[in-house]
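During the reporting period the student researcher (J.K.) took over the structure-prediction task from the postdoctoral fellow and processed the backlog of single-chain submissions. One of the processed entries is reproduced below for the supervisory committee.
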Amino acid sequence: MMPIILLICAFILVYMCLYYKVNIKTVFILKIITSFCFVAMGFITYFKSEANNSNYPVLIIAGLISGFFGDIALGLRRVKPKRKNEYFILGIILFFSGHIFYVVAFLSYAAYKLYWYFIVGIIITIVIIITMKLIGVKSNKSKYFNYLYVSLLSLIVAITFLNMAHAFTQINIILAIGAILFMISDLLLYFIYFGETSVTKSKVIKMINIVTYYIAQMLFALSIYYL
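J.K. obtained the following structure tokens:
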């Protein structure tokens, strides 16, 4: 697995280094290649895993594929700015679908009663929404959809961390780290789209967003191997 992980890390590094140095179409191609890597990793870990009869790998791969097409949609938003709103909505729908696949997958190994995950998820959601308001992030007309998106994201974190608290196993640690990086990535993207920041800070935030996002997706794909 290590050569595959190193190869994906190399693609992420190249993508980061060239993001603001080459034209938009080249960045788009690099994004497709880099995102395809975590989908490929999902399939590789699936065939190497001994738990092929479980629904978990299928759900994770479905989430990875949704993320892949979501990345394409958001990439097209920059390539074809005249239709950026349509591509943005499509991208969000695809990511939202991916989150649902992840939630169902993680809940398939639930260690507690379902209501505990929802209670912790609601608490995390409230904290995030209040924090975003305090730092001046405004989503205006799309705020209710964003709240729903944040709720689903918070549920992913709640499930993985409660499962890790119950059993400190390799797969639970991988998923908990992946979930928190996934949340950081999405919240940074939320900040980029709806926050008010300078160009320089926006570039730094984007780089952190790229790193956290791809590592999170890699960890979700890798979790299949440790079933």
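The committee noted the following: The mean pLDDT is 88.
J.K. will present the remaining backlog at the next meeting.
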